[in-house]
Amino acid sequence: DTGVSQDPRHKITKRGQNVTFRCDPISEHNRLYWYRQTLGQGPEFLTYFQNEAQLEKSRLLSDRFSAERPKGSFSTLEIQRTEQGDSAMYLCASSSDREGTEAFFGQGTRLTVV
Amino acid sequence: QKEVEQDPGPLSVPEGAIVSLNCTYSNSAFQYFMWYRQYSRKGPELLMYTYSSGNKEDGRFTAQVDKSSKYISLFIRDSQPSDSATYLCAMRLTGGGNKLTFGTGTQLKVEL
User: Fold this and answer.
1) B39 touches chain A (CB under 8 A)
2) For all residues of chain B together, what is the average pLDDT?
3) Both ends of chain B: CA-CA distance in Å?
4) Do the Cβ atoms of A31 and B98 come within 8 Å?
């Protein structure tokens, strides 16, 4: 296990379509995070899970967004009825819950809505 | 006003120069401070991590945190063309699920 894996790396979709992204965290990490990054900006927090429980959601996560982590391992992020403003890099990160340990990021999924 | 402010650059320096990158923040409750490096179209890579105030050195990189001034810095000595990337500062509270608040990132170019 070499790191956080995200799939797909790139996704082009038409406005109004649904898309789903997958994240596989580092195997011993029980926390998993989703961030969104637009061009020229730093990543912005969307949501995080501890094991299978979704513990916090940002106001950025509108009703069209849903994230799951059904067995406490991989996670999916679904965007329904995509809009052009959803075009961004979606980053997944994972960490352990031991204080003082930090998060490691995947390579991201770049979404383009046309 | 953003919680974390970072000059976006771009910053261009000659090879071998000492680079200074900085962030200021407004939330005095932040306790953990990180620097991530991000190459174009890649995910952020953790470079340095510091708890509370003080300095930390790792090879050519030195991170400084001054909580009294709400100011953090990253110094890169003997900069190399391979250091050309965007440098993101990030910080978080104690506990809080490791949720990070990032700066906008500073784009650095080290030229031959």
Assistant:
1) no
2) 94
3) 37
4) yes
